[in-house]
Structures are given as C-alpha cells and as structure tokens.
Amino acid sequence: MDSSIFSLHPSSPLILSLAASCPNSTCSLGLSSPSGSFSFGPRHLDFSSVSRRLMAAPSPAASDNKATTANGGVGNGLFKPKIVNGDYGYVLEDVPHLTDYLPNLPTHSNPLQDNPAYSVVKQYFVDVDDTVPQRIVVHKDSPRGVHFRRAGPRQKVYFDSDEVQACIVTCGGLCPGLNTVIREIVSTLYSMYGVRKVLGIDGGYRGFYARNTIDLTLKVVNDIHKRGGTILGTSRGGHDTKKIVDSIEDRGINQVYIIGGDGTQKGAALIYEEVRRRGLKVVVAGIPKTIDNDIPVIDKSFGFDTAVEEAQRAINAAHVEAESGENGIGLVKLMGRYSGFIAMYATLASRDVDCCLIPESPFFLKGEGGLLEFVEKRLKESGHMVIVVAEGAGQELISETKSMTDASGNKLLQDVGLWLSQNIKVCLLPTPFFILFNSKTMFADPTYMIRAIPSNASDNVYCTLLAQSCVHGAMAGYTGYTSGLVNGRQTYIPFYRIIETQNKVVITDRMWARLLSSTNQPSFMCPKLVAEKRKEMQMATEAQPSGQLMDDGNTGADKKAANKEVRA
Ligand SMILES: Nc1ncnc2c1ncn2[C@@H]1O[C@H](COP(=O)(O)OP(=O)(O)O)[C@@H](O)[C@H]1O
Ligand SMILES: O=P(O)(O)OC[C@H]1O[C@](O)(COP(=O)(O)O)[C@@H](O)[C@@H]1O
Ligand SMILES: [Mg+2]
C-alpha cells in the first residue's frame, strides 16, 4: 500500500465509529428499488417519487451521522459534519452516506467484478477504510492531521444499474475540460456500471426547472472532449433550491452530478441538504471546476494546466511585439478574479515576463518603488518589457464607485489591463526619457480565447479520473461530496471544506518568492504594509504549538525564515 494512504487498522478504536457511520455490509432487509415508471414531464407525483419518499422514513439513530463535532456544517448547517478522531491526532473529515438517513438500503455486487477489463486488476476495489492525508509533510512528533476518504470503486454498490437515473449539470464560467468530464461521467456510468439513463441539464442550475433535458448517450458524448465549452451550456444565477429539488423528484433522478466552481458547490451543498431533508434516495456529487484554481484543499483544478499553456502563447506574442519595437511594452491580462495562479504560473513558465501583478499582492503606480518607476527602469535596461496582470489585480486603485455584481453575486471587475495601458501612456510619456524615445504599449486580453479551448492531454486524463472517481462514489452510496485530487490521490471531500474559503496565492510562500526572483520586480509593498504583514505572520507563528505544521505545510520556523524574505 502506498505510504500516502492511511488505512485504518481493524484493532483501532476508530473502526467502531467508522463501521457505524459507513456501512459496507450487504443488508438483507430493506425495500427493493422502485419499479414504477419515471416521469420526465412537468411536475406531478408518480409512483417512483412516492416510493422514494416511503423509503425515506429516517430513523432517529440513522439521522445522527455519528459526527463527533458539530462545527462548520454544510450550507445552512442542518446536518453535522462527519468527523472521526483517531490515534495520534488522526482526523477523518468524512462525507455523508445515503444510509446515514436511509438505513435499510439494499446493496448489490459491483458489476465491475464481472468486467473483463477490470476483473484482472489486483486489488481493484478500494478498501472502504482507506483515507488520504491532507498534508504529507510531517515531522516525527506532528499529529497525523486531517484525512479525506479515498475515492474509487467499492465492492458493494447501493444502486442497481437499471434503477439509476443520473443527470449532469455545468454551471458558472467556462473552463477547458468541461466536455471531457461530461463525457467520462456518461462513459463510466454506461460502460462500467451498465446504467442506461443519463440526462443533461441544459444551461446551468436554472435548466432544472426552466429548460428541457438532453439525453446523454455514449454516441452523443463520443468526441465532445475535442471541443471547448460545454455541450450542456452553462449560466450564472438561477439557483432556486426548492425548484431544483422538485425537478429532481419529478424526473425521478437519483444521481446528480454537478460540475462547477465555488458558487456552484455552494448551490450543490444546498441541494444535498434539501434532498436529505426530504429523505430522498438521491446522491448529490460535485466536481470542482475553476480555471482560476481558487478552490481550496485540492491539488489543482482541471483546465488549469491548459489555461497556463495557452496564456504562455499570449505572453510570447506580447514579447515578440515588445521586443520588435523601440521601448515596446507588452501587456497581457489573464484570468484570476481573486487568485493570481494563472498569472503566476504562466509568468514562471514563460521567463519572458518582467512584471506580474496579481490580486493578492497590492501595488501602486506613482512614486518611489511604484510600478511606473519600475517600468522606466526596465525599459532603460532592456529596451522592452512584458507585464502580466491578473484581472482582479489593482481593483482598489481603479475606482471607488460601488462595485456591481453578476447574476451569481460575483463582483464585476474594472478592466485593469486597459487602465494600466492608459496610465503607462499618460504618466510615462511626459518624462524626459520618453520624450527622447518612442514607446508603444501593446495590450492583449486573451481571457475568453483561453477559456474556450479544449483541454490538453494531461487535463483530459485528469478529467477522466475525476469523473470516474465521482461516479464510483455515487454508486457506492456516498453523497454530499466533491471529488478532488489531494496529494495526487482521488478523494471525496465534504462540501463544507470546498466552500469555506478560497485558494489564494500566498505571497509569503516560496512560490511567490520564486516569481519575484525570476522577474526581479519589486514587491511594490510600502514599508508600512511590509511591517504589518510581518506582524501578522509573527502572531500566527506564535499562536502555533511548537513543531505544529501550519496551513501551508510550513512550521513556525519556516515562517520565521519566510518573514525575512518579504522585501520592502
Ligand atoms: N451562495 C450560493 N448559494 C447557492 N447557489 C449559488 C451560490 N453562489 C453561486 N451559486 C450558483 O452557482 C452557479 C454558478 O456560480 P458562479 O459563481 O457563477 O460560478 P462558479 O461556480 O464557477 O463559481 C450559479 O447558478 C449561481 O446561482
Ligand atoms: O463568464 P464571465 O461572467 O465573463 O466571467 C469571467 C470570470 O469567470 C472566470 O473565468 C471564473 O469563472 P468562475 O467564477 O465561474 O469560476 C474568471 O476568470 C473571470 O473573472
Ligand atoms: Mg467562482
């Protein structure tokens, strides 16, 4: 077994609470799956939805999911997180299971057992007790820390193939790989589990109640991974929990696959809660989508690699333009509303960038140590320069007018690229240096071109594994989870962990230091801000017990060293 997977030992006291909260034994009791006809039309109660309600009668024991703590619940916090504590500071942040509120569900043998391609794989099924640590850098005395349930196929499943009526929805902004994920969910359901009913929800959350559905067959999805966008369409806004769950019931859907970013996963958490409140045998599973890479816990999001690769092409073009003219400035705006990961990685990969500006690192234009001073200096040294700016950078400098939001409630941003190119022109031209020499600023905004391309080879494989893991979890009866890669392993992560924070570039970490050293740009921090940052970090460091690893895997000692790296 891989050392990064921690399997619970049967003799551990932990096994008792896990066995209670995550059944994996075959139940002889229980009602058989509904055999009534499913309704695809407008809302009316049919036999299948009545029988699902009858099956739903939750027992008091089952509705308590054995959580040992009750903090930070999902969505509106109706249901307790499943947290299991083990020896040496081991914590399992488990995901819900249908049997938490439907205790007598029958199980079936996993059809993969008879699949010639998989039956020969040694240990193909994942041990139900396998878990994956969130942090892999540990010290001799550090606690084992937080773990997530390992994803993968289970020996027993909680759905009969004929019983499954799955649906897939894509929400939020576009991202390379969406079609691959759709294709692979359909293909896993059909080819591995023999499912024959998969619906596509048209146009995001509102499609549940305002649009027709699309039948997704192997033929329909066959070559969609070669196309950008999403064949299902997507949208912002339109999340109405009651209407969505009504539609799920009416259509007889019992597996809901929701592909989207932080906003979408918040919506998914609410759907899960409502489904559970109504006691439905319906799995709600998420697949994290964010081109900005701003979803926490997971290693990285699908489409991110593709986006960085494409962003590099734009940087390259800007570099060619800048280098060909006299004092040419190539300015490239990249995606990143709140997080500058695409800008940071594209800059690091390209090596042609002189300055990278991201939302996490404030900058200022004029005066000593400001951006304009640096532009002038770099032009004098090299005769050209390339600036990469993430769309969320410098927003506080552009306008103080009350910010507007989109249909999903996301802040609408001012165009920092246009603003910068105008300011560079207006502010630098009157200086003696620019009166003597010409300068031309070329501004490129390739954001929508990047979002629209199909995913590259590595993202395609990543999307395939994500989709397969997600389906295995649903068939095994897990629910209320997002599938995600943690330390290179597929896991099931409870919704509340995905939506509680946003992943951001930590400018006191080594990666940002690498970037600063590759571009040799100033940190643009005024001395007061540096002092404040240092103080914040010092206080965080002192609050940590000795040897305890902090959020980013560093110890207090690492942090102290990092504090010294913050440059004025
Ligand atoms: N807090 C929330 N609660 C419920 N639904 C939400 C929430 N935030 C966003 N959504 C819904 O999720 C969908 C996508 O959200 P959006 O922010 O546009 O994209 P992303 O999921 O990529 O962050 C939209 O339909 C939106 O209405
Ligand atoms: O699709 P829109 O509304 O133009 O939004 C553009 C935004 O979408 C993003 O691609 C992120 O989308 P999500 O919030 O859906 O993940 C950002 O990079 C960009 O700010
Ligand atoms: Mg978002």
UniProtKB/TrEMBL annotation:
GO terms, biological process: fructose 6-phosphate metabolic process
GO molecular function terms noted in the UniProt entry: 6-phosphofructokinase activity; ATP binding; metal ion binding
Recorded GO CC terms: cytoplasm
Main location: cytoplasm
Highest taxon of source: Eukaryota
Pathway membership, UniProt: Carbohydrate degradation; glycolysis; D-glyceraldehyde 3-phosphate and glycerone phosphate from D-glucose: step 3/4
Enzyme category, top tier: transferase
Segments of this protein annotated with the region Disordered: 536-568
SUPFAM superfamilies: Phosphofructokinase
Entry annotation: catalytic residues: 292 (proton acceptor)
Activity regulation, per record: Allosterically activated by AMP.
Site note Important for substrate specificity, residues: 263
Protein name, UniProt field: ATP-dependent 6-phosphofructokinase
Organism from which the protein derives: Linum tenue
